[in-house]
Amino acid sequence: MENTTMRLDKFLKVSRLIKRRTLAKEVADQGRIEINGVQAKASSNVKTGDELTIRFGQKVVKVKVENLRESTKKEDAAGMYTMISETRVNE
Questions:
Q1: Chain centroid to CA 73: how far?
Q2: Do 44 and 77 touch, CB atoms closer than 8 A?
Q3: 42 Cβ contact partners less than 8 Å away, ≥ 6 residues apart
Q4: What is the pLDDT of residue 78?
Q5: Half-sphere CA count of 51, side-chain side, radius 13 A
Q6: Can you give the pLDDT at residue 15?
Q7: So where are the chain's domains?
Q8: 66/68 Cα distance (integer angstroms)
Q9: What is the DSSP letter of 79?
Q10: Residue 23: what are its φ and ψ, rounded to 5°?
Q11: For the chain, which ranges sit under pLDDT 50?
């Protein structure tokens, strides 16, 4: 059964946008992730259709959540989201 929502840190790990859940939690807790333009916490819920903006150092990645799965194989992980944009930021 498909979930309707999933914790942000878990989505990031399962989709492999961020490799480890602890790291996903850190990034979220540092205020570097937004869901639909609103700053998110690790415990925030994501649902299909949400847009995530994630700041990794010099890079800002924007993705759209396509589906939520409890677990996924490496080759299927990219199907959980669509890359909208990836921009470099000079800080």
A1: 17
A2: no
A3: 7, 8, 9, 24, 25, 28, 29
A4: 85
A5: 10
A6: 95
A7: 6-88
A8: 7
A9: G
A10: -70, -40
A11: 1
Six-digit token pair at 27? 């990034």
Dihedral sign for Cα atoms in the order 73, 70, 67, 60: negative
State the Cα–Cα distance between residues 54 and 46, nearest whole angstrom.
13
pTM, rounded to two decimals: 0.90
Evaluate whether 29 touches 42 at the Cβ level (below 8 Å).
yes
Return the CATH number of 6-88, one of 3.10.290.10, 3.30.70.1060, 1.10.1740.10, 3.90.650.10.
3.10.290.10
Predicted local distance difference test score (pLDDT) of residue 1? 44
Report the 10 Å Cβ neighbour count for 62. Answer: 16
Instruction: Write down the pLDDT at residue 72.
Output: 87
What's the confidence (pLDDT) of residue 90?
77
